[in-house]
Amino acid sequence: MHKWFKILVMSMVAFSTIFLATGCSAENGKTTQETADSNKFPAFQTVDVAGNTVTQDIFKGKKITVVNIWGTFCPPCIGEMPELGKWAREMPQDAQIIGLVCDANGPDDKEITAAAVKILKDANAGFVNILPDDKLLKYLEGVDAVPTTIFVDADGNIIGEKVVGADVAKYKEQVKRYIK
Fold it and tell me: pLDDT by residue (tens digit) across 67-124?
């Protein structure tokens, strides 16, 4: 039995090495233009959870915007909200955080909006949280897990490395790299 276990482990290691060596980028097969466009946050016109109109102009005037993609169904997302709310209140002038409520089916999703408002209120997280329009819903198709946090510059370019999972310390590290 011990011999079979060793063979199984060695097979898994060999498979993992081959898989990693061949690459697993979602950009394989894309044109240069498609790859360049994938580094741009999509233009959008939507509303926040309070019903205020929000566009990609929200990025202007800030060196970096932390975009936290989260869902009302996600315990880790909800768990990090109090810390995100506190951090949002302490951020320097040239940085901000916004949330993107990924499980809303558009700006008119009243049920998810109500759940998000309650979560944000309970967590004292008063930063802007937007509901996805059609362009953002399309963008969210490429998000594999929540929370996923990305970083956007003043021109709407996605910068730095995305962070998958609730890790506010890593978010802060990314922001420090761009705020000097």
Answer: 999 999 999 999 999 999 999 999 999 999 999 999 999 999 999 999 999 999 999 9
Residues 6+ apart with CB under 8 A from 156: 40, 41, 43, 56, 59
| Class level of CATH domain 42-178 | alpha beta
> What is the spatial distance between Cα 12 and Cα 31, in angstroms, rounded to a whole number?
33
CB atoms within 10 A of CB 127: 19
Predicted TM-score (pTM) of the model is 0.80
Instruction: Write down the domain spans for the chain.
Output: 1-38, 42-178
Name the nearest CA neighbour of 71 among 84, 61, 81, 60.
81
